[in-house]
Amino acid sequence: MDFQVVILAGGFSSNLVPLVSKEVPKALLPVANRPVLSYVLDLLESNNLKDLIVVVEGEDAALKVGGWISSACVDRLHVEVAAVAENVGTAGALRAIAHHLTANDILIVSGDIVSDIPPGAVAATHRRHDAAVTVMLCAQPVSGPSESGGSGGKDKTKKPACEDIVGLDSWKQFLLYIAKGTEIKKDTRVNKSILCAAGKMELRSDLMDSHIYAFKRSVLQEVLDQKPAFRSLKQDVLPYLVRTQLRSDVSSDQNNVEENGNGKNNMQNNEVVLSQVLSNASLPSFHQVYESGLDSRKTHKCCVYIADESKYFVRLNSIQAFMDVNRDVIGDANHLSGYSFSAHHNIVHPSAELGSKTTVGPHCMLGEGSQVGDKCSVKRSVIGRHCRIGSNVKIVNSVVMDHATIGDGCSIQGSVICSNAQLQERVTLRDCQVEAGYIVCAGGEHKGETFARK
Amino acid sequence: MESRRNPRAVVDPKVRQVGFFTSSQPDSSSTQQQTEPISASASASSPPVSTISPSGNSLSPVMIPPPRLNSSDTFPLRNAAAGATSAVSPSSFSYSNRRDFPDGSTTASPGRHSRGSFVKSSAPVASSLPGIGMDSMAAAKSSSVPASGLTTVSVVTMPPGLAENASGMEVQSDQKKNSKSLKEKTTKAERRAIQEAQRAAKAAAKADGGKVPPGTSASLASTSVKVAKPAKPSTQKNEVAVSAGVTEKKGGPSEKDRKKDAPHPRMQYDDESRVVKAKRRAVVKQTEAKNRVELFRHLPQYEHGTQLPDLEAKFFQLDPMHPAVYKVGLQYLSGDISGGNARCIAMLQAFQDVIKDYSTPPEKNLNRDMTSKISSYVSFLIECRPLSISMGNAIRFVKNRIAKLPITLSESEAKAALQSDIERFINDKIIGADMVIVKHAVTKIRDGDVLLTYGSPTAVEMILLHAHELKKKFRVLVVDSRPKLEGQLLLRRLIKRGISCTYTHINAISYIMHEVTKVFLGASSVLSNGTVYSRVGTACVAMVASAFRVPVLLCCEAYKFHERVQLDSICSNELGDPNAISKVHGREDINYLDGLTNNANLQFLNLMYDATPSDYISMIITDYGMVPPTSVPVIVREYQKEHLLV
């Protein structure tokens, strides 16, 4: 279908410290014991998109991600990994790989998405409107643990307010305005000409930019070339395109340009008549109306695709989101995990060893080769591979990554224990994050802390 | 209704056979019949048909293509063979070509020789250890992506389809040696055995992910062995079955499928069993609307909300669909393109794109394969929105041109010829015709005229604009109707040019008709009894006009004429989105029917077309001049053939 897919997998996101480290870039953070990138790859593969470019920030991270992909996806997907310098931003990353983009349209997917929204829908909307850019919007997810404790640490792990303010036209097809909720302090500017042309604008705050975009390649490359200062797709490129949709500097469409300006006088010109017939036949968007009102104006279209509310969508961009995703993938949205659940709605690997009187509740996952001692209780948690958990341990709403060791009598709630970390006896953690390889001393009681080596 | 039947008729063996046998008779619609035998064998008829008709004897072009990776050199060879044997009949060509093949590998030209030996060497390898053979072939193609900056970390191995092809070739050559009389009749059991084997092979190929695009990069030997393995037992089975001296036939549609694929000339949507069957084939997921008007039960009506999202979601999964066709389908479905001419042009342009990107698969015939491709696209477009008659005629033209392509043409020549044919159709039959119509019609506009038009017909708009350019003094009354309100768009364009206009809705037609001197109407189609099939409301306007003794001039390009006879607008029509008439967009305050849409006692009828009897039409302006409606059958009879041949 002449689409190229670029996955922006990021590098070591600062939002996710201490979960990410030199060993574990963001793309490889485990969600239900699978790297988060695998969810994106699976989504694309199920949509028959098998030729992918993965862009990773930093050479080291690229090596790690590349290594994982080649071990996991060999024979299924054709993946190329490109390493770009760190902190160039999404726009910078695309600029770095721009010369590899050849298809007419580019589908850009963030690498930290766990979703079941078919990306084809965005592409189809994009094609149908012949748009310069199409953005997928989805409903704002309910964040935070819904039916459990752990609200205490919410202030700290709260999402960095990623609510977007979007303005749509009355048919909900075009994007008239987009801004990040956090950027709007008191007042904001709305382009008057766009408002006049569209007639009506619907401002919504319940929709969220999902970081799945379809760009026309020529437009994207032109913007990236013209504006070297642009660093982020979402914060720079997209608002720019939306702002300038009625006075386009980019040569988005040749047909639209000639159709109305000069051609109507010479009826002999078949081409002109042809394009006229075609354009007259369709219901003109406000772009065309505006264009026909003023000569020598070029416009481009910024479209939206609003995903169905029943679809699942979360971006893994904060620690809270990380907890949410892990909880949902083995809970409500378990069709995404790709595992088959037992009758108790949990996944216990056959090689995992459970001690006597140990209970593993529903919506839990116990990885391969993990050992759990006696009289333990595991609820709504994901436990990685080869973990060793002592006796009398209580794990609720937590994520324990591979090879972690948890001593006897620990109590863990709403926390993330990274791989190779060690908890000595009788540690009580509540809403804490423990860095990989960190050793928490015995007997401590912690709440809302981050354990990392300085 | 010929136009609608045509795309489906390709998969209907019975109709085809009749067409073939009667083709010698002189008939007005002989052009169409000539296309049919060819398309018949293209869609791989089953054994019983083949034993009767000579065209069926050809090795059907699908199933087991040989392992030719560089298709570029195959065509000259095939053409050479065709040149030698084309005297017999076009259908026997691929056959004799293949019979030549073993000799060619031993004696004839170097080109053939190398190809033959390649087959011989690769085939045994492929059957014993397919991985190695594939490996070496794939290695040559490995550097398709510029390496700078990108590291390929994961690749897809060669698709099993190719591995299977390699062993498939062996099957074919075996079969050539063993089967002496290829026309030998087959017993039912044998046919069944072949079919079973081929079905198994197909299933195996599919299970291995046959959709994987070929030639991505270097493959791992171990994996490709693993991949190719499942294909092997089935091909062996094939070999056994085929070498039993049986005419090789493609699995294709089995008997049962064929029956299913033979639809009623036009689907009657109140026939439930047929609807269910049609639904199974459909690409677009369609939910039947619940409350339908009894009189129009036989027409398709779907829940409009569900189709578009579903089709959009499948964007990347519709592998064989060409993007251009897909886009046009989406635009039909969402109503972004409407109007007979525009839809027709959009479709033809999509077909041009298809032809541009087309390359004949190995061992297939361009004429046949492309016809079947076009047919599948057309059935997709029909699912998006029923075809208009003009589109039906255009499709008939395209298929006819494909079928008429001389077999000696190379692929690029054939493609260029087809593209220019389509270009010419658009320019001559649509745009050119409109120009002629404008020239004729302008003579009928005098100073001081008050012209009425309804909706937004392309031709009429051009007439008005041209008359305005000629500095004629006239006034235009634009009559419009809900829900599409196309007249407003026309109005906007006319006003921009400085034509003085009056705008009204069709409710007021009888009051406004007093001052009108001429009525100009457009049409979706003109049928051979002079009935005008057009946007709903046209009949009303024409009748009121004739009651007021106002002349009604109908502007219609001749490519929209059709030989069908229709007396009413019930038997053939199109149902639009019922929500369009029950709701007013953006006016929540006047949606009085809110909540009633699913009431069992309420049925919405949003008809798209109506039929105007010829009595109400004073004159039809077409590219053959200004004629009375009674002359339509003459034009259809005399010029239709020329239409299709151009």
UniProtKB/TrEMBL annotation, chain A:
Domain (EIF2B subunit epsilon/gamma LbH): residue spans on this chain: 350-431
Record's subcellular location: Cytoplasm, Cytosol
Keyword annotations: Cytoplasm, Initiation factor, Protein biosynthesis
Predominant location category: cytoplasm
InterPro entries: eIF2B_gamma, LbH_EIF2B3/5, NTP_transferase_dom, Nucleotide-diphossugar_trans
GO molecular function per UniProt: translation initiation factor activity
Residue ranges constituting the Nucleotidyl transferase domain according to the UniProt record: 5-147
Record has Cytoplasm as a keyword: yes
Family stated for the protein in its record: Belongs to the eIF-2B gamma/epsilon subunits family.
Subunit organization: Component of the translation initiation factor 2B (eIF2B) complex which is a heterodecamer of two sets of five different subunits: alpha, beta, gamma, delta and epsilon. Subunits alpha, beta and delta comprise a regulatory subcomplex and subunits epsilon and gamma comprise a catalytic subcomplex. Within the complex, the hexameric regulatory complex resides at the center, with the two heterodimeric catalytic subcomplexes bound on opposite sides.
Function recorded in the entry: Acts as a component of the translation initiation factor 2B (eIF2B) complex, which catalyzes the exchange of GDP for GTP on the eukaryotic initiation factor 2 (eIF2) complex gamma subunit. Its guanine nucleotide exchange factor activity is repressed when bound to eIF2 complex phosphorylated on the alpha subunit, thereby limiting the amount of methionyl-initiator methionine tRNA available to the ribosome and consequently global translation is repressed.
Protein name, as recorded: Translation initiation factor eIF2B subunit gamma
Organism: Camelina sativa
Gene name for this UniProt entry: LOC104706279
From TrEMBL, chain B:
Provenance organism: Camelina sativa (False flax)
Origin: domain of life: Eukaryota
Pfam families with a match to the protein in the record: IF-2B
Protein's UniProt name: Translation initiation factor eIF2B subunit delta
Sequence ranges of Polar residues compositional bias: 86-96, 216-225
Main location: cytoplasm
Residue ranges crossing the lipid bilayer per the database entry: none
Protein biosynthesis keyword on record: yes
Residue ranges with Low complexity bias: 22-55, 195-207
Key words, A-Z: Cytoplasm, Initiation factor, Protein biosynthesis
